[in-house]
C-alpha cells in the first residue's frame, strides 16, 4: 500500500486502477462494492455519484480519504 501519496482520480476507470493498486486481490465488502459500482458506471448503468460514494467508503475502510480540489474542477484526489 502507498503511504503519503496523493493520487488524482477523475474517472471511474481511474478509480478502478486506484483500487487495484491499493488492494490488489483483497476481498473486503466495501472494495467489492466499489469495484462493482465503478464497472457499472463504465457500462452506463449507474450514475457516477454512486460509484464515488462506494469508492469513498472503500477508502474510508482502508483508513484513507478522498477530497475535492478547491476549484471549479470536478477532479478528485485520493490520498493514500
Descriptive report:
- The longest helix has 14 residues, at 29-42.
- The chain has a domain at 13-64.
- It has a three-stranded antiparallel sheet with strand order 1-3-2.
- Strand 2 (65-68) and strand 3 (76-79) form a beta hairpin.
- The chain has 80 residues and is an alpha+beta fold.
- It has three helices and three strands, in the order E-H-H-H-E-E.
What is the average of the pLDDT values? 78
How helix-rich are the residues, as a percent range? 40-55%
- The 3D shape can be described as globular
Q: Alpha-carbon distance between the termini?
A: 8 Å
Helix/strand/pairing category? alpha+beta
Q: How many helical stretches? A: 3
Beta-strand residue percentage: 15-25%
- Total beta-strand segments: 3
Order of helices and strands: EHHHEE
Radius of gyration: 12 Å
- Biggest β-sheet, characterized? 3 strands, antiparallel
Q: In terms of per-residue confidence, which ranges show pLDDT below 50 for 5 or more consecutive residues?
A: 72-80
Strand order of the largest sheet: 1-3-2
Topology readout:
Elements: E1 6-9, H1 12-23, H2 29-42, H3 48-61, E2 65-68, E3 76-79
Antiparallel strand pairs: 1-3, 2-3
Helix pairs in contact: 1-2, 2-3
What descriptors fit this protein?
single chain, 80 residues, alpha+beta, 3-stranded antiparallel β-sheet, 3 helices, 3 strands
Summarize the structure.
With 80 residues, this protein is α+β, with helices and mostly antiparallel strands. It contains three helices and three strands. The chain has a domain at 13-64.
Amino acid at each position: 500500500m502507498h503511504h503519503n501519496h496523493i493520487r488524482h482520480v477523475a474517472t471511474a476507470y481511474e478509480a478502478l486502477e486506484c483500487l487495484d493498486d491499493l488492494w490488489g486481490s483483497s476481498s473486503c465488502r466495501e472494495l467489492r462494492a466499489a469495484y462493482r459500482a465503478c464497472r457499472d458506471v463504465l457500462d452506463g448503468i449507474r450514475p457516477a455519484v454512486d460509484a464515488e460514494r462506494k469508492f469513498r467508503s472503500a477508502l474510508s475502510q482502508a483508513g484513507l480519504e478522498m477530497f475535492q480540489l478547491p476549484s471549479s474542477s470536478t477532479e478528485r484526489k485520493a490520498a493514500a
